[in-house]
Amino acid sequence: MDFTTILLQTGYLTIKEEKTFGDDYSQYLIAIPNKEAKNSLFSYILGQYTNHTSNFLIPMAKNMLNSIIHLDSESLQKSFEILLHKIPNILYGDIKKELEAYYKILLMSWIQLLGFQIDSEIQTIKGRLDAVLKHENLVLIIEFKFSLKDDLDKMINNAFSQIIKNEYYKPYQNKKVILLAVAFKSRDIKCELKTLEECLNE
Fold first, then answer.
1. Predicted pLDDT at 36
2. DSSP label at 175?
């Protein structure tokens, strides 16, 4: 049975909208029905990758959200490291050829658990930003960097510079804006949080 069909049958996906074209063809918009189903689904997916149960992942997600709100880069990085280093080495070996895409998907899956509304791969007048996350009056702008050669600190600095240079923050200046730079290098990760004001004044 098709995986999407299984998710529909089990209630993890629901039909949100149907468009009919003539008598023989319909197009369906499907979505995760609610927050509880989303958390359960992403906990299961992450559990398969990291060998952690939802009893571990949900409290970690709350800690990660708290780290973001309080600009605690060190705590957030520790959470990312715990998740990253629980991925079985045999699986890591299978995805080496597509590391950048894999890490970006993995990062966004982690963030999904935090309760943010996520917009990714957003086109702007000056470029494309990786992701914007919205939570009440908070906006988190994420820039992702990956390299097997560059230094992690260099990638972090480049990520912040790109956000400011390309003015990715401009549509969100009526909110509290936090910038998150994330750098991956093979099985190493580094992240740093800054306020928009801090970056603009550097």
1. 63
2. S
- 81: Cβ contacts below 8 Å, ≥ 6 apart: 189
Q: Determine the Cα–Cα distance for residues 89 and 67; give it in Å rounded to an integer.
A: 28
* Other CB atoms within 10 A of residue 133 CB: 22
Task: Extract the runs of DSSP E, i.e. beta strands, from 57-175.
Answer: 117-124, 127-135, 138-146
Check residue 91 and give its pLDDT.
43
Q: Can you read off the two tokens belonging to residue 83?
A: 């998740």
Taking a C-beta distance cutoff of 8 angstroms, is the pair 52, 86 a contact? yes
Residues in contact with 26: Cβ distance below 8 Å, sequence separation at least 6, in sequence order = 18, 19, 20
Q: Measuring CA to CA, which residue among 140, 164, 169, 155 is closest to residue 70? A: 140
pLDDT, residue 73, reads 95
Question: Are 157 and 195 in contact, with CB atoms under 8 Å apart?
Answer: no
Q: Which class for 71: exposed (0-12), middle (13-18), buried (19 or more C-beta within 10 A)?
A: middle
pLDDT along the chain (202 residues), means of 10: 54 66 63 61 56 66 87 92 66 52 72 69 72 85 89 95 93 92 87 94 86
